[in-house]
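quick one, 201 residues, struct below
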Amino acid sequence: MRFNVTARMMAVQAPQNWTAKDRDNFFTRHFYRALFQRILVDKGVVVGPQHSDNIKGKTVPEDVEDGSNSSSSSGGRNHPIILGSLRKQHYTSFTTYVRAALSKLNQDPVHADKVSASMAGLTDAAIVQYERAYAHKKKELSIVWSLMAFSAGVVESAIVADRWQWLREQAEVGECWVESVFDYGVSPRNLVVVGIKNERE
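---
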């Protein structure tokens, strides 16, 4: 069994400990990233899924929808862009987020030229229109991420059980077990795998 980076990231979430502000910040970050991806698809920077243009109620302004999101320019293959993290102040608005993300991608050695050429005409007004057009999708995204966050315990337990099982199979290990070393409220990664070597004869 393999867990991708999203599953591993979710494994460290503790939704029971979230405050209202924590939840809002978490969902806003993911909403901004998803909406930014929508812009990248519409501008042809990356290739979107087959159904990407069949979103009900789509009202994207004409000046940012130029039809360049077909897969022909990249041979039908999608080359994901890794944006990474941005500073806290870049999440004050979607426009600020997009400008910070573009600034970062314009320094990317692989994607800089394409990003710069494709996004050159993207205005602040168009960015705001994107946010308004897809604002209703934030609730749906929040529901999905909430369900994923509440599965964090399952993923973390699977990882811990795998490590315990590996240790248990080692000939030099006499005993092994899993125990909690601090309260879950401090961190969801509060488990430790303990192993004791066999006594020498």
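Residues 46 and 79 are 6 Å apart (CA to CA).
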